[in-house]
Specification:
By secondary structure, this protein is an alpha/beta fold. It has helices at residues 41-59, 75-94, 104-112, 119-129, 139-153, and strands spanning 2-7, 12-21, 24-34, 63-67, 99-102. It has five helices and five strands.
Length: 160
């Protein structure tokens, strides 16, 4: 089962495709969708949603696992990320690709077994679970792979 993990953001949205084979995971591809800082937020959101939609289509993913907003210190940046999440969900619903949202705590727990794990611990577990030589880079791509692994480790893998 091919899962697209997404770590949403305005400047960079991380993405990672993981093939789930039973209890094993195989990394397929990962990276970030970058947007130029000088562009209006509406254009940036559109670029991100289209980019993620194109990646879902290119890789033929069966589901998307995306990090949700759980807590935000900066309300204005949280609103922007919420808009990105909504745009991605809309884009994927048009393509009939199911989306599951997970909180950062749920992702950390699924990947490390510890809900308050540090970022470097999550990234190292991603590296180990995907049998990679080094921690995936940039950070947003590593976080997106963690979101995909979270979907795989979730007891409810139903797509509807």
């Amino acid at each position: 089962m091919l899962i697209l993990g997404v770590d949403p953001g305005i400047a960079q949205t991380g993405w990672g495709v993981v093939d789930i084979i039973g209890q094993r995971y195989r990394p397929v591809s990962f990276g970030v969708v970058k947007t130029p800082a000088g562009k209006p937020i509406e254009e940036r959101i559109h670029m991100i949603a289209n980019g993620i939609g194109a990646l879902a289509k290119e890789h033929g993913v069966q589901a998307v696992s995306m990090e949700d907003i759980f807590f935000a210190k900066n309300v204005s940046s949280a609103i922007g990320v919420a808009k990105v999440i909504g745009a991605i969900i809309q884009q994927l619903s048009v393509q009939q690709v199911p989306v599951r949202l997970f909180t950062p705590l749920q992702i950390k727990l699924a990947v490390t077994g510890y809900g308050t794990a540090e970022k470097h611990q999550v990234q190292e577990m991603v590296r180990l679970l995907l049998k990679m030589d080094k921690v995936p880079s940039p950070d947003h791509a590593a976080d997106s792979l963690a979101a995909a692994i979270c979907f795989a480790n979730n007891k409810d893998r139903r797509l509807s």
